[in-house]
Amino acid sequence: MFTGIIESIGSIRALTPKGGDVRVYVETGKLDLADVKLGDSIAVNGVCLTAVELPGNGFLADVSRETLDCTAMNDLKTGSPVNLEKALTPTTRLGGHLVSGHVDGVGEVVARTENARAVEFRIRAPKELAKYIAHKGSITVDGTSLTVNAVDGAEFLLTIIPHTLSETIMASYQPGRRVNLEVDLLARYLERLLLGDKAAESSLAQGQGNITESFLAANGYLKS
Predict the structure, then answer these.
(1) Cα separation of 216 and 208, whole Å?
(2) DSSP label at 80?
(3) How far apart are CA 180 and CA 34, in angstroms?
(4) Burial letters for 118-141: b for 16+ Cβ neighbours within 10 Å, e otherwise?
(5) d(Cα 59, Cα 14) in Å, to the nearest integer?
(6) Distance CA 224, CA 220 (A)
(7) Domain boundaries 105-183, corresponding CATH code
(8) Above 90 in pLDDT, residue 14?
(9) Does the chain have fewer CB atoms within 10 Å around its N or its C terminus?
(10) pLDDT at position 218
């Protein structure tokens, strides 16, 4: 688990094809690796990776085909800057929100607008994630815990303050960039809880598991 508070900007030193997937070498910059052991988790642009080698100035991790297919990791090249965060501990301050490091989908930056010293980004999420994104709710973008300022369909607006711009890779975002998105864990659990006993049925029996207004009304969650 992570908090979405980025600890360092690192960079990709090498991407090596290995048995059908990829081994990535990440230089970690100012990230303190003194307490990191082999097998520990580190989030790279919001993707939870396992350290398999610790050469001193960074770590190596294996990236599976599943991860490459479901995230924007395929867009990384040698030299690409990346957001880094070590896994939280019981004494870690939860400055952001609970983040699993399991990316839900890939979004796209569709607009960038200067707003005084801040920068506003409009990001388009995959349609299937739109229901989990709420005004003033939390979302993780490339591992950074952020507050949603507005929602319009599958697009949402973020206002990024100067500190966040300087401590993450968001300052480099331009329209067309693909970003890793992880929605709020609470929204996913709530959806599952609302299914009640139907959660034990197959997705076909649930109507593909979608929560609809008619489902909520039929199960007493809405008053007529």
Answers:
(1) 15
(2) -
(3) 28
(4) ebebbbbbeeebbebbeeebbbbb
(5) 11
(6) 9
(7) 2.40.30.20
(8) yes
(9) C
(10) 57
Cβ neighbours for 6, distance < 8 A, ≥ 6 positions apart: 83, 84, 85, 143, 144, 167, 168
Residue 211: the pLDDT is: 58
Q: Would the pLDDT of 157 be above 80? A: yes
Which pLDDT belongs to residue 186? Answer: 87
Choice between 189 and 114, residue whose per-residue pLDDT is larger: 114
Within the chain, strands assigned E span 8-18, 21-27, 41-44, 47-50, 58-63, 81-86, 105-115, 118-124, 138-141, 144-147, 150-152, 155-160, 178-183
- Whether 215 shows a pLDDT value over 80: the answer reads no
**Structural domain boundaries of the chain?**
8-86, 105-183, 187-218
Q: Which fold has domain 8-86?
A: Elongation Factor Tu (Ef-tu); domain 3 (2.40.30)
Tokens standing for residue 190 = 């709530």
Query: 85, 9 in Cβ contact below 8 A?
Result: no
Residue with token string 């300052």: 171
Question: φ and ψ at 103, to 5 degrees?
Answer: -70, 135
Q: Which residues contact 156 (CB under 8 A, 6 or more apart)?
A: 122, 123, 125, 133, 139, 148, 149, 150
Cβ atoms of 6 and 142 within 8 Å: the answer is no
Choose among 73, 78, 63, 69: nearest CA to 21. Answer: 63
Q: Which two tokens stand for residue 173?
A: 């975002």
